[in-house]
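U., I forgot to send this yesterday:
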Amino acid sequence: MARMNRRRFLITGGKLAAAGALTYSGLSPRIGRAADTVKVGILHSLSGTIAIAEAAIVDAERLAIDEINAQGGVLGRRIEPIIEDGASDWPTFAEKARKLLVRDKVAVVFGCYTSASRKSVLPVFEQNKGLLYYPTYYEGQEISKNCIYTAQEATQSVIAAIEWLAANKGKSFFLVGSDYIYPRTCNKIAKPTIARVGGRTLGEEYAPLGHTEFSSIINKIKAAKPDCIYSTVVGGSNVAFYKQLNAAGLSGAKQTLLSTVVSENEIDGIGRDNAVGYYACMGYFQSQKSATNDRFVKAIKAKYGQERVVGDPMECGYTGVHFWRLAAEKAKSFAVEKVVAASSNLELDAPEGKIKLHASNHHTWKHARIGVARADGQFDIVHESPLIEPNPYPKL
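Result:
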């Protein structure tokens, strides 16, 4: 593991370009005594089937903590992270959340990945008046006073993706997803959007989570001959799905496919050759050009190795830590209710660009970006929207 570059990020206070701006500082940190700390929890799967996605988020959150500590911490206190393994098991997530809040008395928890894990811990946070920062794109249909959502809810990616595809690639669609709440909710949003832009939905198919045999679905796609495939197939199933699409003659060079769940991290698992030419819609891509993102990516590689890639949930986990720091500093308190109140309309110049928290629904205003996968596993960005207001309860 490469050692962390001595140069660190600094988040300063003020307006959008200043208060949340991430800049370098070469100053040596002044770390207080061990007693002068604030405990925070990190709760992700470090083992089990989901660890392949979640472990990388832990790395990004730890980087953000290192950066803040390098500048003196929060309210004069050094952040002390307590890391727990949810083990890809939803009851374990709830148990570890309770341990962090009740026994460790952490000020905040950064954690979860799947909606199942988030829903298992939310009652624990609500009962114990804790605060969770959740970093994964998800289906919406939820607002909790004890959760800050730093990734996109479904309307912030699905609508922009369908509109761009209809305008640029064609108006007939085939919808494919894994069989659980996120893909089904996304398709409930996609279908009326397709109709609104004058398009047609030619088919809608779901495969069980972990499914690896897509020949039947691919045959239906080939028979329908859609202009576009909209995919919400998740996790390891994409390895099989993308390989089988290529084998069936539906490579990215011949068939437009866009996913709202495949980031750079997933492409590393799928295999770069299998993903070339396919599209993704995310709030963040590693290939974005900005000074803030360049520094972020360099810091990840300096700390964890030059071969590391950065995907959307990693950036959202990193952003969540910095949002919490800004809110605590603004509130001059670690008290949950005061941090939440200070989060209303809070702005940040993040690696993904200038974003802000919503005034009331605890979600984040996000850009929708569409990229096409390259042979090196990165994305060329072909579309970027203005900031999109979060709407977790759309009329479907």
